Every structure is written in C-alpha cells, then in structure tokens.
Amino acid sequence: MHFVKGTASLYRPILLSLIRSRSLSGLPLYVDVHPTTRCNLECRWCVNKTNKDTAASETMNDVNIPMYLTKLLEPRPNSPSYSPKRIHFCGGEPLLRRSVVLAGIRFLEGKDIAVSLVTNGTLLIQEVRLAVLGVESLQVSIDAQDRETYARLKRGDYFEQVLRNLEALANLRSKSNSSLRLVVNYVLCRDNINALHPFLTRLSNIGVDKIQFRTDLTADLETQRALLQEVIGLKYEAPLSVIIKSPDTPVTRDSFDNCLARFIWIVLGSDLSIYPCAHTVARGFQMGSLIDSNLFEVLEKNIKSPNPNCLRICPSTCGNINLLGQEILDQ
Question: What are the angstrom distances between the C-alpha of 56 and each of 34, 36, 72, 203, 271?
C-alpha cells in the first residue's frame, strides 16, 4: 500500500518561475475537459450540488471539440511546441455526452499527451469500451464496497452494473495490445470504510490495476484524518495497487494570497470557458473563453487579475500547490 502526500513539492520550480517572472512557459500542465456538469447520480459529497450557478450551457459538441482542443495546444511565446502533459475528460458525468468524449479521444489519438476518462462507470457501453482501449487510464468512481452502501451514498442502484462494465472492459483489454490502466476512485466516509478487504479482492479479480482512496473534503479535518488512519491500517496485500491521496490540510481561499493552481491545472467547461479548477466550474468564475481567445491569451490576462472570489475547499492537489506557493511568497 502506498501513501501519497505532499506531492506539490514537485511543482516548486514551476511556482518559482510563475511567482518571480510571471512566466507561463509550459503551463498549464493538466487540463480537465467537462463536456457537461450534469450527472445521472447524486453523490453525497459532490461539489456540483453546491454550485447552484453551474455553467449549464453545453456549447461544446462533437463537431467543434477538435477545434477547441487545438486552441488548447496552440503555440505560444517561449513555448513553440507546448502541450499539456495530461487531459482528463470528466465532469459531471462525461458519458452523458458520449459523442463529445469519443470525438475528443479520437482527435487526441497519436498526440504526445496522456489522456484519461473519469466516469462513474454506469454508461460504459461497448462503443466506449473499445474507444478507451486507446487512452492511458480509465478512472471509475465507485465509492462503496457493496450494493446497499452504493445506493445510499450515490442515489442509484448501479453497483453490480458498474463492476460488470469494468470486468467486460478488462476482458477486452486482455484480448488486445492495450496498455489501458483501470483505476477505481473511492471517496472515504464513515459509511463506506468497513469490509473493504472483500471489495479490494473482487476488484483485483476483475482486473482493476489500482484503487485511489481520497477523503471527503466536505468533512471536518479530524474525521478525514481518522478515516485515513483506518485505511492505512488495512495492511492489504494483493496485486491491486492501493493508493491513498490526501491534502496536506483542507485549503480554502483564505489560506493563501494568490491562487497559482489556476495556471497549472485548469478546466475547459462545456460552455468553452476556462475555469480555475474543478470546484469552480460555475458562473462568475470564468477566466475567459476559447470562443474568442486561445489558452495563452486567457492565462496571460489572468496572471495580473485578482484571485477568484472562491469560498470552496480546494481540490487536494490544487490546495497543496497553493499552500506551497504561499510558502514561497512568504520566504
């Protein structure tokens, strides 16, 4: 079992350049593409439940997504061959707009960019399974160890269906030359912490490569730490890789002077606007639009602009990046 924490230190050289010279060279590293903010489940901890002004416009479609992905990759000063290291299709439930996701995956095929799909796994039909054999990873959010807990936490009776979909995809992978990694995401809470060993064994038998445990960022810090300690104490040994990801501490806007994560890990929304992070895909947080600008122009405009007026908890990696940025600013 691997405990992953404090990875923001990897971003120190980038943050130093960003802070000292306002250099956007090579940024952003990661782009989340949200074909929709809608979902067919209602997870207890979902940030979109509190985003009452979620960007509802779905201007992105299967015809124009190649053009707007191209805008993400356009050359810029000092980075003539720029491309992000990774593009995630997520949301919302991205497969509610399956044609957009598939068109995006086809466009990025053969480019030197790691592509992943983050989904709840309920809509992994055969067409999607075949398409994702060509991406780096498929991340499926299950967040429960049995059918009853799944229904209670996610408001849907899809537990067995999702596991069948994963098994079908694993079987397809074994018959191909695909290097696709199958990853299960699991948000920890008091209701889903028990009887994990049988669940982990089942995932391993299905063909899942890794499970990533995360904390529910809406829970108090004491609860998050207690849950992490319980998982760390599992002492699970199996071919399945078990990763624990957590923030150094839950981070809100008042924890730092400058949101620097908005230049490192951004979101392209379904309305074709750029947003600072996955927790701020809502009206009032747009950094700019790719309809009338390219990505570099949007970032350049925002490097001199005030921070987003955000009261939400930062996604864990973004929060750690912002805390490290504050540490550098305070030196």
Answer: 11, 8, 21, 35, 7
Using a 10 angstrom Cβ sphere, with 0-12 exposed, 13-18 middle and 19 or more buried, the burial of residue 90 is: buried
Alpha carbon distances (Å) from 224 to 4, 43, 46: 15, 17, 16
Instruction: Tell how strand 114-119 and strand 30-33 pair up.
Output: unpaired
Question: Residues 77, 33: contact at Cβ < 8 Å?
Answer: no
Q: Which of 142, 187, 150 is nearest to 166 (CA)?
A: 142
Residue 134: DSSP 8-state:
T
Beta strand pairing call for 30-33 and 2-4: unpaired
**What pLDDT, in 10s, does the model give residues 31-60?**
999 999 999 999 988 877 655 555 568 999
Residue written as token pair 């805390």: 323
pLDDT at 8 exceeding the cut of 70:
no
**What pLDDT, on a 0 to 100 scale, did the predictor assign at position 51?**
57
pLDDT at 239: 76
Tally the residues of the chain.
331
**Torsion sign over Cα 50, 52, 55, 58:** positive
Cα separation, 41 vs 144, in Å, equals 13
Q: Is 278 or 165 the better-scoring residue by pLDDT?
A: 165
Lookup: tokens for 230: 């319980």
pTM beyond 0.85, yes or no: yes
Radius of gyration of the CA atoms of the chain, in A? 19
**Residues 62-91: tens digit of each pLDDT:** 999 999 999 888 777 666 667 788 999 999
Strand-pair category, 273-275 with 265-268 = antiparallel
Alpha-carbon gap, residue 126 to 124, rounded angstroms: 7
What domains can be seen in the chain, in order of their start residue? 2-330 (3.20.20.70)
- Tokens encoding 309: 């007026």
Distance CA 59, CA 79 (A): 29
Measure the CA–CA gap between 161 and 33, rounded to whole angstroms.
Answer: 25
Mean of the pLDDT values across residues 277-283? 87
